[in-house]
Design a protein that fits this description.
25% of the residues lie in helices and 24% in strands. With 226 residues, it is α/β, with parallel strands linked by helices. The chain folds into two domains: 115 residues, Dihydrofolate Reductase, subunit A; 108 residues, Rossmann fold. Strands 5-4-3-2-6-1-7-9-8 form a nine-stranded mixed β-sheet.
């Protein structure tokens, strides 16, 4: 069974995901209100975050080779990484105190070296797809194995667009910032072929001129099988 999936992003007035400073405290406060069971994240988002907010990658310690013991009610991070981009830096995610632990989604093309890296550090991973992760297979799998009802993703444009294009998004949450990026805008929606109809379910003015919009995605009913 498919879990409920919320696409949550902070954007500028002209729909950009980048080239402005997002209010991360408010962004994650809103994300926490959903009480998601897991955060779904693409590997590109992790590498970009480490480069943008980190001061270099710290050396691994003995504790990084063991599963953390944290509150079971914290969300796990489910990270899509078929190419092993996060080899050597995945411990920076595991150290995040509000993350229960890391689960990695791989494919049959994932390098064996990366799988050995994951095994050695006790990371749980699932192979779901040949060249790329099959999202339609992955979401029901994590829902069943980890008793997941709500998935939240606040990742970048690539994964967000894939989820939209495959009709996997149930709700879109947008924290609109009072800024216009202009010509350097990296728009949230790109390369979407389908027309998606939405219903506005929330429009709330937040502090400091931010506005929070929530839209329900109207999905086409599947045709009955004769």
């Amino acid at each position: 069974m498919m879990p409920k999936l919320i696409l949550h992003n902070s954007i500028s007035i002209d729909g950009s995901l980048t080239s402005f400073e997002p209010n991360m405290e408010l962004h994650y406060r809103i994300a926490g209100w959903y009480k998601p069971d897991i955060h779904l994240i693409g590997s590109n988002t992790i590498t970009a975050g480490v480069a943008l907010y980190g001061d270099g990658v710290p050396q691994e310690e003995l504790s990084d080779f063991q599963k953390p013991k944290r509150n079971k009610h914290l969300p796990a991070w489910v990270i899509i990484d078929t190419k092993g981009k996060l080899e050597g830096i995945l411990h920076t995610c595991r150290r995040f105190e509000l993350c229960r632990d890391i689960i990695v989604l791989t494919s049959k093309k994932t390098p064996q070296r990366y799988l050995r890296y994951l095994d050695k550090r006790q990371y749980t991973y699932h192979c779901v797809g040949h060249d790329h992760v099959d999202l339609r297979q992955a979401l029901p799998l994590v829902s069943k194995v980890y008793h997941v009802k709500t998935v939240l993703t606040d990742t970048g444009r690539i994964l967000g667009n894939l989820l939209l294009e495959q009709d996997l998004v149930d709700e879109i949450s947008l924290l609109v910032h009072p800024v216009i990026v202009g010509k350097n805008a990296y728009h949230m929606v790109s390369d979407i072929q389908k027309n998606h109809k939405l219903t506005l379910v929330k429009c709330q003015r937040m502090e400091q001129q931010y506005v929070w919009f929530v839209y329900k995605v109207i999905k086409k009913r599947e045709s009955p099988i004769h």
